[in-house]
Amino acid sequence: MLDKVATWQPMLAADLKHLKRLSDLLFPDYLEDYEVLEERWKICPLGCFILKNYSFNAVGYALAHPAKLKAPPKENRIFIVPEDADCFHIHDICMLYDYQGYGYAGRVLRDIAAYALERGFNKLAIVAVHNSRRIWEKYGFKPLDDETYQQKIKADYGDDCFYMVRTIEA
Fold it and tell me: Distance between CA 104 and CA 94 in Å, rounded?
């Protein structure tokens, strides 16, 4: 069990190389340039975390930042936070398979939600990819009730994707 012990830490610039490696490994169908991942971190460093195991190896990451509902950043494109941002967008919460099922996603999601509330946002949003809708529903996210917009998300990201939103309670 000791080999599955890990902790979320604030992501630092030195962690970006691990971010790129993990992103490529975990999302081979959604490859993103290093500069795009770095830009996501620069938008909101306090909304980004790295999961490190007891050997200090990076085994997961979380990226989140302000955005506008129904306007998620495009994959592998530089993103400018709109002045009228009204939600906190979760770009990714992911980890190596061996670390899934130990509660790590729920822990970092609580931290992201608390930080979003501190910043004045009461909504979290995510594009759920790879048939992950059920996982996000477990954390209180619901598919946006807008079939036209959901079809746009499917056209942009794939047939197994949903745009989901969660209201954050204080």
Answer: 9
The amino acid occupying position 74 is K
Query: What's the total number of domains in the chain?
Result: 1
Secondary structure string (H, E, C) spanning 102-114: CCHHHHHHHHHHH
- Here the CATH number for the domain that contains residue 135 is 3.40.630.30
pLDDT tens string 62-95? 999 999 999 988 877 888 899 999 999 999 999 9
- The tokens for 79 are 């993103």
Domain that residue 145 falls in: 2-167
Distance CA 53, CA 84 (A): 38
Give the model confidence (pLDDT) of 145-160 as tens digits.
Answer: 999 999 999 998 889 9
How many other C-beta atoms are found inside a 10 Å radius of the C-beta of residue 60? Answer: 24
Residue 9: helix, strand or coil by DSSP? strand
pTM of the entire structure? 0.91
C-beta atoms surrounding 74 within 10 Å? 11
